[in-house]
Design the sequence.
């Protein structure tokens, strides 16, 4: 008989809808303002800490919904944001610097839903509030640094092979290292020696055949860039964890960009300082033999460089770097015996060896800690962003009392706060190449909340308008389409919650509203077709059958093209627009399913396979 | 209930030249406006800083401007945003200040000089290189979408229809850009998304008509090309109007209830869908007819296989 469906199809579709409904459910539960407390590197959060905190909250009259310890973190839920903020104060006082306290909105999903992996949709920053940064990595600085490293290596290599060179220097503008010699035999020998050590070098000689010009191959250049980006991402991720943000996002974008999203963060000043800072440390010996006076007049000894300390005092330092900041594994702030702020530094094994070797023959000499920072200047570069200026200052120099090992102390810091910041930066590691913020979007929490409300009202009213229209225009068939529309919304929300990468944004909500308006299109096509078939004098059952079959080709064609557009949109879009593309694409798929498969089952169930004289369409 | 119920197909193609002339004039007009007035690019494209602050009482814009001038931002544009308590401050890119800190300094200035503290609702800073890239990427995306559609329609239908469809889409996009240029509405990232969504919607409409044109060619044997197209458009007219109607309904809801951030998005789509409905009826089909589409182009390809081969296939 025409228009009859086997039972299993009904079971399948109803099953799918129920599944979607279950996964859509978590979105109905509101979120709790919460505190996320974790220990800093190496530390652990104990059950004792949890019970102490709970006690303190109670004595301060803050009603905590729950304080639980899970996965090494304490999650405390509160009834209001006021309670949450107050609780943070208390937690910070009680726990001190070894713990990181982050504000968070914890979903209040019931346990049985969490157990099956049902979580609410990810909300974009425009809906939950927070900061979005787009950072550009200064690749030129990374390449320059690499050239300077090459100079050091070449000197050592040539010395090792006993090849006499006149001078080794970096030509930053050409991206080459120039090595000059006294004889052409040395040039040949040097080329062979250097080539043996590194196959990715490109050698040319100058016109007088006495200078070897060493460039870097394209492959190596690409490697350097990739490394700089990857390393920066790792370091920024470390830093973000140090700030204490719940669910931060640090992601690569394109060849030299990094996206950082910090939900819930309102004070952007601190975040910016920590993220953008390219602070690194270098330790060099003070050149006591060179004449400071003539250096100030421009005659700097060839193996030294002129630096200034914080108070403007000139210092002459050796060019050779004894140790760089990337060997630092731990840093904490504290006070020395005179209550002056200091930073305690721990090094890795290689750093320890380097420092130990470097200071072995230098006992009694002075060692300076040079603090290097890149800051955007006033000059604008070719790419439209301000050129970064390298600022170097000597933060302290002290006499080496004994051979240094893996633990040592830096003094000469202005304030405890600065010591703390410096420790944070050093702990997280120095950026390989400086970064700068090229885009920043901060959404206040009130605006986020308002956006959600606006979006939900728009969806409700848009839905109501379409439901009413369909019911009036297509009568009983309109009601069938309406059931499909509601099912479509449930499916859409369920899918969005299920797909981990899908994020709901304000344009995404607009996308849902638009989907509601356009989703009925498939049903309109089908119903109009059925009407036509009826007018042409077909029987009721034939009209339904042909109506669905003929309309389907059209529906498929028209939606594939729309899907194509959604894909393009996803490809180019960032943030909110990507969110829109995702909802649009999922909406198209779910609406085809509900409008074509869903309504057909329903129509067949009601009118199919029986004697019906006319259809309420 | 039915909106249209015609006994005979309407003669749409009688007006095809009028429609083509009208569309050409509108497209040229849009280009002229874009050339003369330009497009009011939003922050996403120009770069700069936008700060939205909330006041407890209706805001005094004059005082806010004064505060900003005192703080060194004479070039700040201050306006109400959505309600009388929300103020939007735009500060263009300037070479002499560090852009990343503008948001913080402005908020500080406002908080120190206003009697009541203002609440930060959002601060957005976009660097100059980002905006340029976005313009390029956006243009590229539109082009890619159009090319993709051109290829798909040519494959599924016929090249004349494909050209008609893409001409209709380009027509919708250009006219919408023209509207934003004439009214000097702000063109931001959401508007770009709306225009791409519009391409999706409009092609949907066009494909439905084309599908019917193909079917009518196969069904009606004794009619002229124009009559066939008329028949196809007439029989899909109900669907075209109803779908546009439901979509316009939700867009009106979005326009009035979606908040100020969604305004541009809703405007672009509302206008675009009106234009898109017209263009899928007139521009797309008219161009295909003018290019000389015929019944033969639309018939299913004749079976090429010989008897032996087909029995083998069985």
Sequence:
């Amino acid at each position: 008989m025409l228009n009859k469906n086997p039972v299993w199809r009904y079971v399948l579709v109803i099953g799918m809808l129920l599944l979607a409904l279950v996964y859509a459910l978590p979105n109905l539960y509101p979120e709790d303002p919460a505190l996320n407390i974790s220990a800093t590197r190496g530390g652990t959060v104990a059950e004792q800490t949890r019970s102490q905190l709970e006690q303190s909250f109670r004595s301060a009259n803050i009603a905590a919904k729950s304080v639980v310890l899970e996965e090494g973190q304490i999650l405390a839920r509160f009834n209001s944001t006021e309670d949450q903020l107050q609780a943070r104060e208390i937690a910070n006082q009680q726990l001190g610097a070894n713990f990181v306290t982050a504000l968070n909105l914890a979903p209040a999903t019931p346990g049985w839903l969490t157990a099956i992996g049902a979580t609410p949709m990810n909300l974009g920053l425009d809906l939950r509030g927070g900061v979005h940064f787009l950072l550009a990595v200064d690749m030129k600085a990374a390449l320059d640094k690499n050239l300077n490293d090459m100079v050091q290596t070449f000197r050592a290599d040539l010395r090792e092979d006993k090849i006499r060179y006149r001078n080794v220097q970096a030509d930053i503008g050409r991206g080459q290292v120039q090595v000059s010699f006294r004889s052409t035999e040395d040039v040949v020998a040097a080329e062979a020696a250097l080539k043996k050590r590194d196959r990715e070098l490109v050698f040319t000689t100058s016109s007088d055949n006495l200078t070897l010009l060493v460039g870097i191959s394209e492959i190596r250049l690409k490697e350097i860039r990739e490394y700089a980006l990857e390393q920066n991402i790792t370091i920024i991720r470390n830093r973000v964890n140090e700030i204490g943000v719940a669910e931060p996002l640090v992601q690569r974008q394109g060849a030299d960009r990094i996206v950082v999203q910090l939900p819930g963060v309102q004070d952007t000043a601190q975040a910016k300082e920590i993220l953008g800072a390219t602070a690194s440390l270098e330790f060099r010996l003070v050149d006591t033999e060179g004449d400071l006076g003539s250096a100030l007049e421009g005659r700097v000894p060839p193996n030294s460089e002129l630096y200034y300390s914080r108070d403007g005092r000139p210092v002459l330092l050796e060019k050779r770097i004894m140790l760089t900041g990337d060997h630092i594994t731990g840093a904490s702030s504290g006070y020395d015996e005179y209550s002056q702020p200091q930073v305690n530094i721990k090094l890795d094994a290689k750093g320890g060896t380097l420092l130990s070797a470097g200071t072995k023959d230098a006992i009694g000499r002075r060692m300076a800690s040079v603090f290097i920072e890149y800051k955007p200047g006033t000059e604008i570069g070719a790419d439209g962003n301000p050129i970064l200026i390298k600022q170097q200052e000597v933060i302290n120099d002290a006499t080496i009392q004994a051979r240094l090992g893996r633990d040592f102390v830096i003094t000469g810091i202005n304030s405890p706060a600065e010591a703390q910041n410096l420790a944070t930066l050093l702990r997280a590691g120095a950026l390989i190449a400086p970064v700068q913020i090229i885009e920043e979007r901060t959404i206040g929490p009130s605006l986020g909340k308002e956006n959600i409300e606006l979006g939900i009202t728009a969806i409700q009213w848009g839905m109501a308008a379409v439901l009413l229209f369909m019911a009036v225009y297509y009568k009983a068939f309109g009601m069938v389409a309406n059931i499909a529309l509601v099912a479509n919304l449930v499916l859409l929300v369920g899918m969005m919650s299920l797909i981990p990468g899908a994020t709901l944004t304000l344009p995404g909500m607009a996308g849902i509203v638009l989907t509601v308006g356009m989703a009925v299109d498939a049903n309109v096509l089908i119903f109009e077709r059925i009407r036509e078939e009826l007018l042409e004098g077909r029987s009721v059952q034939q009209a339904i059958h042909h109506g669905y079959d003929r309309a389907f080709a059209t529906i498929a064609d028209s939606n594939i093209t729309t899907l194509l557009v959604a894909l393009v949109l996803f490809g180019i879009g960032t943030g909110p627009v990507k969110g829109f593309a995702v909802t649009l694409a999922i909406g198209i798929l779910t609406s085809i399913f509900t409008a074509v498969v869903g309504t057909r089952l329903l129509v067949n169930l009601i009118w199919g396979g029986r004697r019906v004289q006319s259809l309420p369409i | 209930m039915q909106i249209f119920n015609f006994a005979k197909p309407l003669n749409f193609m009688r007006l095809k030249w009028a429609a083509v002339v009208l569309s050409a004039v509108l497209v040229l007009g849009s280009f002229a406006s874009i050339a003369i007035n330009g497009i009011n690019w939003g922050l996403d494209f120009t770069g700069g800083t936008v700060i939205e602050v909330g006041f407890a009482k209706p805001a005094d814009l004059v005082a806010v401007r004064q505060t900003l001038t005192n703080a060194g931002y004479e070039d700040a544009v201050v306006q109400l945003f959505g309600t009388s308590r929300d103020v939007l401050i735009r500060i263009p890119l300037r070479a002499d200040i560090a852009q990343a800190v503008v948001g913080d300094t402005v908020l500080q200035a406002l908080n120190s000089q206003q009697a009541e503290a203002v609440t930060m609702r959002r601060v957005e800073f976009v660097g100059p290189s980002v905006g340029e890239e976005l313009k390029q990427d956006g243009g590229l995306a539109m082009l890619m979408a159009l090319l993709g559609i051109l290829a798909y329609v040519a494959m599924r239908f016929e090249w004349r229809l494909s050209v008609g469809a893409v001409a209709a889409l380009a027509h919708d996009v250009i006219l919408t850009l023209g509207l934003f240029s004439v009214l000097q509405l702000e063109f931001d990232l959401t508007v770009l998304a709306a225009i791409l969504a519009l391409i999706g919607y409009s092609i949907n409409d066009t494909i439905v008509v084309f599908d019917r044109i193909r079917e009518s060619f196969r069904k009606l044997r004794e009619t002229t090309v124009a009559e066939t197209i008329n028949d196809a458009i007439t029989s899909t007219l109900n669907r075209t109007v109803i779908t546009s109607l439901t979509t316009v309904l939700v867009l009106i809801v979005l326009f009035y209830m979606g908040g100020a951030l969604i305004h541009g998005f809703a405007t672009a789509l509302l206008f675009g869908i009106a234009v898109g409905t017209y263009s899928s009826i007139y521009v797309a089909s008219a161009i295909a007819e003018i290019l000389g589409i015929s019944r033969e182009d639309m018939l299913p390809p004749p079976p090429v296989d010989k008897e032996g081969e087909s029995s083998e296939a069985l």
About this structure: The mean pLDDT of chain A is 83. DSSP finds 16 helices and 23 strands in chain A. The longest helix of chain A spans residues 445-498. The CA atoms of residues 219 and 479 of chain A lie 63 Å apart.
